[in-house]
Amino acid sequence: MITRIGVAVVGCGMIGQFHLEAMKNLPEFEVIGVWDANPSLAAEVAQKWNIRPFCSFEEIINDQKVGMVDICLPSGLHGKYGVEAAKAGKHVMVEKPIDITIEAAKQLVDACKSSEVFLATILQNRFSPSVAKVKDALNKDVLGRLLYGEATIKWYRPKEYYTARLSRGTLQYDGGGALMNQGIHTIDLLLWFMGDVKHTRSLVKTSLHPIELEDLGVAIVEFESGAIGTIIGSTAMKPGFPESIELYGEKGSIALEAGRIIRWKVDGTEEGPHLDGVPVGSGSSDPGGIPIENHIAQFRAVAQAILANEQPPVSGEEAIKPLQLILDIYHMSGK
Ligand SMILES: NC(=O)c1ccc[n+]([C@@H]2O[C@H](COP(=O)([O-])OP(=O)(O)OC[C@H]3O[C@@H](n4cnc5c(N)ncnc54)[C@H](O)[C@@H]3O)[C@@H](O)[C@H]2O)c1
After folding, report:
1. What pLDDT was estimated at residue 278?
2. Contact indicator for 174, 74 with CB cutoff of 8 Å
3. What residues does each domain of the chain span?
4. 3-state secondary structure of 315
5. 130 vs 167, residue with greater confidence
6. Which of 53, 93, 146, 314 could serve as a FRET partner for 131 with CA atoms 20 to 30 Å apart?
């Protein structure tokens, strides 16, 4: 029986290095090495972690010790590299968004199925204990019939964030701006809590930054259930504010801010014991400000599922839902 999964991290930028930091806490993963289009970065990161700097992607997929390829590349490359890894018989873990087009995302899902390998997509905020508690409460009908859900991501990124990497803020690599890149976590949670969407109306703009994509977008949605939702996503709201989700149902309202429960006003329930005292991190003004605990929790769940030969969370099909909604928001705004 396999007790550890050999991992190669592909992409040594901000999130690739964050993954290495998170994985050091998990004995289920043995990080074999890293690869990046920038060989000196790969060498530097490999030296820091005392792992192998792979010279090419082919080297990774031909390495018998690598059981899973962890894709931390710009979003528009996720599907392409994921498909190659799956065809070589490697499990695939891929950062959000699963890709930037539905076609590429579905190709990745199909490639993993036909090669009989697992696909896990990173949407780590689902693994925050407070988010899981809200999900559990909704499953137990604590709010009754849901009426309205609101996702608010008023974040800020300075100009340097977009100029630091050629890929950032570009249609080719990011596929979308504030909604696709930053807002997707909160949009995913809104869908997870409220259910699938029936209709979307939207207005999306590049309001502040000199980028190809939106830095401000607003959408109104109607869920399959008949409930209504609103979404605002931005990277132009200086200085950046913690993201939030507000849920309103027949029996009251629950709200989360940056992964922490800040409201639990439910009929017949005392609010105090449900509130979280300690603030959790947010990427509101710094991409590195996200809390590492959620990544660690998702990695642990992924590793345990794969070792038990079960589908790890979050499946490709689940990850396509927020991608589809964001693409619909762009489409309805004429983008
Ligand atoms: N889950 C989260 O909270 C979170 C946070 C940040 C980023 N992300 C996701 O992680 C991914 C990477 O984002 P990032 O901020 O780390 O980007 P980044 O630009 O910092 O890093 C990307 C790395 O990929 C390398 N690269 C680019 N093209 C390549 C290619 N063709 N082959 C090999 N390497 C290549 C670059 O040299 C760079 O080192 C994106 O999809 C992003 O959406 C997720």
Report:
1. 72
2. yes
3. 5-121, 125-289+320-332
4. coil
5. 130
6. 93
Measured between alpha carbons, how far is 313 from 287 in angstroms, rounded to an integer? 23
Nearest to 75 by CA among 110, 35, 108, 42: 108
Tell whether ligand 1 has an atom less than 6 A from the beta carbon of residue 165.
yes
Class of domain 5-121: alpha beta
Distance from the alpha carbon of residue 76 to the mean position of ligand 1, in angstroms: 10
CATH number of 125-289+320-332: 3.30.360.10
Among the ranges given (146-155, 223-232, 272-281), the one the predictor scored with the smallest mean pLDDT: 272-281
pLDDT exceeding 70 applies to what percent of the chain?
Answer: 100
Q: Is the CB of 128 under 6 A from ligand 1?
A: no
DSSP three-state, residue 77:
helix
Cβ(17)–Cβ(45) below 8 Å = yes
Nearest CA to ligand 1 atom 17: 13
Cα of 273 vs centre of ligand 1, distance in Å, is 39
Cβ–Cβ under 8 Å, residues 72 and 9: yes
* Position 114 confidence tier, pLDDT thresholds 50, 70, 90: very high
- The C-alpha angle 101, 148, 153, rounded to 5 degrees, equals 50
Q: Whose CA is nearest to atom 4 of ligand 1?
A: 15
223 CA from centroid of ligand 1 (Å): 32
